[in-house]
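User: Design a sequence. Structure:
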């Protein structure tokens, strides 16, 4: 009995069981991974038919893109049918994936490598580490900004136009001024804490902030002007703006300016709301009454070019600037306001 107790000692038993569990889980994980990559290999042809030719003609900005992925893409574009095993070392494939790119008999799987490349390109474009040269959406951040040459030659004029002459200093000077201003605000806030009825301290010194209840009074609010409705549909707001300025006409066909078939105002409103609220186009088509998803997709694809959107924006901004209310915050040049103001 003593020998049996010694063999089945609880600590030793638990330790052995833990080791067995780890071995079992490791084996299952390897099997699952192997099966997963085998399935990836099987769907290569279907995937390649959809993306291979696209990847061959895309032009990436090599100045702002991840160099390793860009190098792999260029190699693929030049030797799409002859991609060699030598490209595995570029760092595109991580250690875990790399061990499955070879079959059990040591053969290099070209199809699996291309799948890894397609995935790396997809992830790179989505994350911004790969930038396209000819795209409105996937360019480098610098390409959307004023060029350094234009900024250097027109800095004073640009700052005056946007009432930002206070920033016509060296960046260290501006940051130093803001640090002093922020530090002063911290001192004022901390000094007023003892008299602040909304802050209490626990026995251990932890602060507890009680948010005051907001007033239900609508006096002086926009509710006086827009009525008692708690919510205003975006479609109604867009329709009201159309009554004052014809921005709808800006959405002409991308290629055929004299195209006879133009989308309805309802479709344009739905497209604006979908793009502005980051709602997937097909989903917007499904939840919009009287608008088919295909029609909405066609509207966005052929009528919502950047030039058309910019022209519509200019018309709306011109309307805003013509209203005296839009200048109410411009009287104090030392006050900084946001777009919501």
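Assistant: Done.
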């Amino acid at each position: 009995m003593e020998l049996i107790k010694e063999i089945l000692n609880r600590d030793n038993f638990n330790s052995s069981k833990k080791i067995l569990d780890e071995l079992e889980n490791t084996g299952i994980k390897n099997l699952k991974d192997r099966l997963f990559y085998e399935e990836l290999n099987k769907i290569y042809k279907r995937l390649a038919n959809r993306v291979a030719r696209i990847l061959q003609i895309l032009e990436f900005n090599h100045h702002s893109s991840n160099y390793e992925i860009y190098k792999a893409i260029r190699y693929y574009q030049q030797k799409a049918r002859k991609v060699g095993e030598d490209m595995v070392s570029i760092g595109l494939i991580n250690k875990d994936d790399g061990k499955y790119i070879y079959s059990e008999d040591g053969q290099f799987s070209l199809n699996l490598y291309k799948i890894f490349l397609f995935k790396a390109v997809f992830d790179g474009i989505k994350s911004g580490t790969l930038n396209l040269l000819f795209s409105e959406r996937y360019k480098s951040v610098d390409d959307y900004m004023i060029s350094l040459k234009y900024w250097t030659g027109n800095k004073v004029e640009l700052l005056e136009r946007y009432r930002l002459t206070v920033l016509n200093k060296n960046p260290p000077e501006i940051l130093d001024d803001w640090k002093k201003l922020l530090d002063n605000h911290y001192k004022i806030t901390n000094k007023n804490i003892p008299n602040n009825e909304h802050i209490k301290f626990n026995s251990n010194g932890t602060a507890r902030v009680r948010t005051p209840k907001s007033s239900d009074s609508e006096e002086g609010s926009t509710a006086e002007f827009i009525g008692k409705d708690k919510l205003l549909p975006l479609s109604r707001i867009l329709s009201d703006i159309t009554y004052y300025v014809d921005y709808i006409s800006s959405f002409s066909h991308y290629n055929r300016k004299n195209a006879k078939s133009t989308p309805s105002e309802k479709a344009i409103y739905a497209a604006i709301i979908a793009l502005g609220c980051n709602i997937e186009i097909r989903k917007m088509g499904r939840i919009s009454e009287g608008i088919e998803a295909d029609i909405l997709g066609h509207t966005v694809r052929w009528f919502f070019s950047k030039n058309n959107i910019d022209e519509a924006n200019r018309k709306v901004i011109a309307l805003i600037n013509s209203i005296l209310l839009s200048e109410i915050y411009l009287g104090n040049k030392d006050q900084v306001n946001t777009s919501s103001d």
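Residues 10-42 form the longest helix (33 residues). Strands lie at 199-201, 207-209.
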